[in-house]
Amino acid sequence: MPTKEMVVGIAEVPVGAGRPARGHTHEPAEVYYIISGTGEVVVDGETYPLRVGDAVWIPPNAEHAAYNVGDEPLKLLYMFAKDKFSEITYCFPSET
């Protein structure tokens, strides 16, 4: 059954991917749920550890980035309160 007003997916950050200089922003709030691995997430300049079972709330328009600090892929479930992924516009401050 198609969903309405909920976009859900899985992102994977490989081992050794490195920490990005800047994150990205988007209008809708986002939630991460950590499925595997360990990492860190930076949200508006504040760094938080990530491990299996953690959930992270990312407020609307907050600059953020997740990166892997472990020895296995960091996998996270992400969720947006939108109908389709194509409705989410990513902005990269480092490119402006």
The chain-level structural class is mainly beta
Report strand order across the widest sheet.
1-7-2-5
Query: How large a portion of the residues is in β-strands, by DSSP E?
Result: 35-45%
The pLDDT mean sits at 92
CATH homolog superfamily: Jelly Rolls
CATH architecture: Sandwich
Radius of gyration: 13 Å
The biggest sheet, with number of strands, parallel, antiparallel or mixed sense and barrel status, is: 4 strands, antiparallel
User: What name does the CATH topology carry?
Assistant: Jelly Rolls
Number of strands: 7
Provide the succession of SSEs: EEEEEEE
Specify the helix fraction band.
under 10%
- Class, according to the CATH hierarchy? Mainly Beta
Low-confidence stretches: none
Question: How would you describe this structure in keywords?
Answer:
96 residues; mainly beta; Jelly Rolls; 4-stranded antiparallel β-sheet; globular
Give a quick rundown of the structure.
By secondary structure, the protein is an all-beta fold. Helices cover 0% and strands 42% of the residues.
Describe, in plain words, how this protein is organized in 3D.
By secondary structure, the chain is mostly beta strands. The model has no long low-confidence stretch (mean pLDDT 92). The chain is globular, with a radius of gyration of 13 Å. The chain has a single domain, classed as Jelly Rolls, CATH 2.60.120.10. The protein contains no helices and seven strands. β3 and β4 form a beta hairpin. The strands form two sheets. A four-stranded antiparallel beta sheet has the order 1-7-2-5, with no helix packed on it.
